[in-house]
């Protein structure tokens, strides 16, 4: 972008004229000096602009400026020939200037230098020889030094020196002496100074390029280590957009080569999901309007899988005009994050459904408990107020009602416990303490059924992160199942096995056992091995399902082994991360404290 000159020092009328002239001249320059083809390389594009503008300026100078000068200020009789020569040279320059606009800037440099040298030489030989004419050689040399390497500039200087010597040989003695004694030495001195400056400039340019190359190498190595890709987009004067550069990470990220990129979006329609292409385009337009944009789009990987890209664009403004020069962008692969967000959303929906189910179960349980409480109260009143003769007849039915009420209350407890699994509260807790609690709760029940209850505890210093209430619910379900299917005189064993990375809670009995056909389904919700079981035995198939849910909530598993008439063993296995052992006090008072030197405790009636 070119900074517009200030005309504040001019009067208002002349200021408007100056602005109008400048705007028209700048529009003309941009129209006829800009490349007419798309050029990827920034350096080449800059060279094309410079050479094109220089040749256009020289063509205007030779085709308009010089003829006007010759006509307005004639200095000899060869004015007409000079005018035609200048106009002819300007047409030649305009022809090659159009080729330069198409990218052939090196050809334009060669033609410009050759034509200028020929015109200067012919003017000197054909017309009157003036000392100032030879200084045009210096202008040609400076023009060549702006783009061409040092060796070409040196070659042009040598050619100019040879031409000066030839002109001196064909001139009059006075002019020949002037050329050889004054013009030629000055030309050599000034040329030497110019070449020294060129050499210094080339040295600085090489250092800058080396530093840029080092920086690019570092950036390339860093870009190879990250999954994001970066790019730069520029808008052409005709309104089209052009990707200036893009990092190699694009190909590694998407699986497509960089040639798949188009001029209007970061990844082509062949890569981007068709329904999301408009999102890229709209965000790109907002970026070129000066807005920092972030958008997420779906894209097809090379293996045709659908992934997610997050594309961030930030505009770069021209400090002088405030217009957007280009847009920098970064593309990030966010497929994993999107999947995680989707999973989180699904989990949130699942929690909401679980919460709704939990509220429903609690409300239903409350209603059923109220009804059962009324039934039990009325049963009790009938039992107390009935006469002795009638009581003997009614008592079996009253006992049946009582048993069903207890059974339904127990199953409601199980359903409520399953509904409450949606709310897990983990905290460090002693493993041995959980078995101690179950031992205290069931030792009297086991004794009443003439069943031996054995507890084999692990190290009392071992704790694990658990929901202790839920673990005790699972152990209670296993104990209820064992008591239900163990004959009087049998044995139930609770054991905690603590290893380096797992803790297993085992409940085994020597009771009826379970047929192998039922084992694969024993933990399914509402599954019963004996659908015809009576009220005295069994429930609705909730207890063992509760055990499985608790195990899975602790990232563990539950398994069963059983033989008919030989007993059943349930194993609740959970992952465990050892902590530094710490001495703990006894789990609770003097109610029940098996010593550390007592590996097992047996209670029998």
From TrEMBL:
Catalyzed reaction equations: ATP + protein L-histidine = ADP + protein N-phospho-L-histidine
Keyword terms: Kinase, Membrane, Phosphoprotein, Transferase, Transmembrane, Transmembrane helix, Two-component regulatory system
Top-level taxon in the UniProt lineage: Bacteria
UniProt xrefs under InterPro entries: HATPase_C_sf (IPR036890), HATPase_dom (IPR003594), His_kinase_dom (IPR005467), HisK_dim/P_dom (IPR003661), HisK_dim/P_sf (IPR036097), PAC (IPR001610), PAS (IPR000014), PAS-like_dom_sf (IPR035965)
Gene3D superfamilies xrefs: 1.10.287.130, Histidine kinase-like ATPase, C-terminal domain (3.30.565.10), PAS domain (3.30.450.20)
Gene Ontology MF terms in the entry: phosphorelay sensor kinase activity
Lineage: Bacteria, Bacillati, Chloroflexota, Candidatus Thermofontia, Phototrophicales
Enzyme nomenclature, EC number: 2.7.13.3
SMART domains, per database record: HATPase_c, PAC
Organism: Phototrophicus methaneseepsis
Annotated region described as Disordered, given as residue ranges: 572-605
Residues in Histidine kinase domain copies: 363-578
Name of the featured protein: histidine kinase
Stretches that traverse the bilayer: 50-72, 78-96, 108-129, 135-167, 179-199
Pfam families documented for this protein: HATPase_c (PF02518), PAS_4 (PF08448)
Domain PAS per the UniProt entry, residue ranges: 215-291
Residue stretches of biased makeup (Acidic residues): 595-605
